[in-house]
Amino acid sequence: MAHVVLKDLVKTYGGFKAVNDVSLTVNDGEFVALVGPSGCGKTTTLNLVAGLVPITSGDIVIGDRVVNDLDPKDRDIAMVFQNYALYPQKSVYKNLAFPLQMRKLPRDEIDKKVKEAARVLDMTHLLERKPRELSGGQQQRVALGRALVRDPAVFLMDEPLSNLDAKLRVQMRSELKRFHQDLKATIIYVTHDQLEAVTMADRMAVMNGGYLQQYDSPAQVFAHPVNMFVASFIGSPAMSLIPLEASAANGDTVLTSAEGWSLKLSRLNARKVQRATTKKVVLGARHSTIKLHKSEVSSAIPAKAFTVEPTGDVTFVQAFLSGAIVNISVSPNIAVAPDEQIWLEFDQERMHLFDGETEMALKAD
Amino acid sequence: MSTIAETASRGQTRRRMRVDGWRWAGRIFLVFMLLYTALPMIWMLITSIKSGFAATQFPPQWWPDEPTLASYQKLLDPQNSVGQDFLRFFWNSLFVSTVTTILSVIVAVPAAYAFSRFSFPGRNFLFFAVLLRNMFPAVIFLVPLFILMRVLGLMNTHGSLILTYLTFGLPLAIWLLKGFYDNIPVQLEQAARIDGATRFQAFIMIVMPLSTPGIIATAIYSFIGAWNEYIYAYTFLSKNDQLTLPVGIQRFFSENTTDFPGLMAASFMMSVPVVVLFLILQRYFVRALTEGAVKH
Ligand SMILES: Nc1ncnc2c1ncn2[C@@H]1O[C@H](COP(=O)(O)OP(=O)(O)O)[C@@H](O)[C@H]1O
Ligand SMILES: [Mg+2]
User: Is A248 found in the same domain as A128?
Assistant: First the structure.
């Protein structure tokens, strides 16, 4: 196993920057998720690490070697592709054996390793089949097995679960996590599904538009998103982002809506707002930090329920404030009807404040 | 109630009748097409086993009274001057077509692969240029190529034909193969390269086996094109011992005007390689055409 360092990594296609100055370190044995919306440069970044596309500038270190100019085969990596990329003309056995054959291992050793991997992944009975004779889940396992047999320094995975059905995906998610814990493997895992990243990764690198936005543990990213993009991308339902205007009144700082209502900020939050470059401030609140009242409460803001979605454990209510969608979760025994008048109370301790111009999170110090 | 049901069922019957009508029209059309293509060939075969006299009788003998393989024996007999000519023409055709096919595959495979996989300056322009050639009828190039071959000193050589057939066959071969490579996911090669293959090994070990049907289809296409070509062979070659079959057989026609069975036997033997190729490789051919066409 080895650590991986990306230093000021840039990849341009023509004039288009697909990957923009990405720097991050993946520790030995760490499970890092690259997460972001489709087209943000995750696959390109992974392919750069793999050596499948040439880098425009920057450095990649795997273990203690700069691998910029090494062929993929010399980087000691294994990769699992979204479409599995199993060799269609080869049996499962030969698919698993291929990386070992290319490394010129003796035949009996290949046989031993292939059978061991097949046993671990519980697919000994599939060894003679061709990939097209397997279900999607089985193909996925073979792809994983082909990465596994070789015992590489780093595993690269590009949305390996996204072609599976929902149930299998959840199951494979925990199996992959288990696999990481057992092998102490260094894994870089690409996904557009923030839930996969949050549930599996030690650290997640959130990307957007080719830029690395934030690189931290899921808990940190969740609790302290650095900007509005990360705030709205991580967490489901998405964090509500309400555009407001800051002003001072009687020594207090208040956020005023174009709709007429205003919200008095706590001292700490007021300090944050004073750091903004503009009067425009965006209030961010996760669904669980907004309290829904069915009657008027001081400091709560009047709104109208728009949609109500019971899911069993919780009921999600959507409302509009200042033109923004606000998601609120309430206990299922609170009955809310669409179009009903409600009052929303924001938790000052757990609210997020963003600069309306730069979209960056506002900090107190 | 019952009337509604009746009307509905009658409507259904009528629709079925209309569908059946079209289907029958289609079948009859296909039968006609089949007869149209097969009958001349059957007649060719029947005539080839008649005696010279029987072949010119009227009304014709539908089935020869005395079927004979004499024409075939004559054509395949190296002792006999007709046989000598025929075998030489056959060999010439085989040589020109085989070399054309081999060269065409050797050039088309890497070209198509490059067009499919790499982006390089002028890629679109070059690909368009490749196809441009196919937008003009072949005869347009007759005179320019004739002059070119004379300048190159290739008149009266098989090389002139091979070169010409390549310029005609390659564009389509490249186009056909490119479609094929486009449908092989690039991730397969990437996986192979990560698994320890060089770029070239990935191509040879993973992509080539998958594109075999496409390559075979391309090869058949080149071979048949070269095998059947007449105009250029007629124009570029004048020495008798160099002629290819299409031109050679035509000579038969003028020199041995009355030998219809001989002519038909020669024609039949000329179509044998093509038919055999198709029978052996039709599976690949169909697969190549459908796989090249359908994205999946
Ligand atoms: N070979 C290429 N040529 C041109 N643009 C590309 C190429 N590969 C990727 N891109 C562009 O780079 C961006 C990032 O792509 P990708 O890394 O595949 O995104 P992701 O995996 O995050 O969905 C996209 O806008 C894509 O269109
Ligand atoms: Mg991707």
Answer: no
Domain count, chain A: 2
A39 lines ligand 1 (CB under 6 A): yes
B121 contact A CB<8A: no
In a domain, A233, yes or no: no
Q: Is the pLDDT of residue B212 over 80?
A: yes
In a domain, A101, yes or no: yes
What superfamily would CATH give domain B72-292? MetI-like (1.10.3720.10)
pLDDT higher at B1 or A343: A343
Say if the Cβ atoms of B187 and A81 lie within 8 Å.
yes
What pLDDT, on a 0 to 100 scale, did the predictor assign at position B135? Answer: 82
Contacting residues of A for B206, CB less than 8 Å apart: 87
Please indicate, yes or no, if residue A293 is contained in any of the structural domains: yes
One domain for residues A83 and A211: yes
Q: What is the pTM of this model?
A: 0.84
Distances (CA, A) of B282 to B105, B174, B221: 18, 20, 12
Q: What pLDDT is stored for residue B257 in this prediction?
A: 64
Q: Are B284 and B213 in contact (CB under 8 A)?
A: yes
A152 CA: distance to closest CA in chain B (Å): 10
Q: Which ligand is nearest to the CA of A36?
A: 1
Would you call B196 and A102 a contact, using CB atoms and an 8 Å cutoff? yes
Is A48 a pocket residue for ligand 1 (Cβ < 6 Å)?
no
Distance of alpha carbon B206 from alpha carbon A131, whole angstroms: 14
**Residue B172: which of B228, B208, B226, B212 has the closest Cα?**
B226
d(CA B139, CA B158) in angstroms, rounded, equals 19
Residue closest via CA to ligand 1's atom 1 equals A13
Place of tokens 């697909």: A18
Average confidence (pLDDT) over A304-329: 93
User: Residue A154 pairs with which residues in a beta bridge?
Assistant: A77, A186
Where is pLDDT greater, at A70 or B50?
Answer: A70
CB contact under 8 A, A73 and B187: no
For B210, the closest of A85, A89, A103 (CB atoms) is: A89
- Structural domain that includes position A79: 4-226
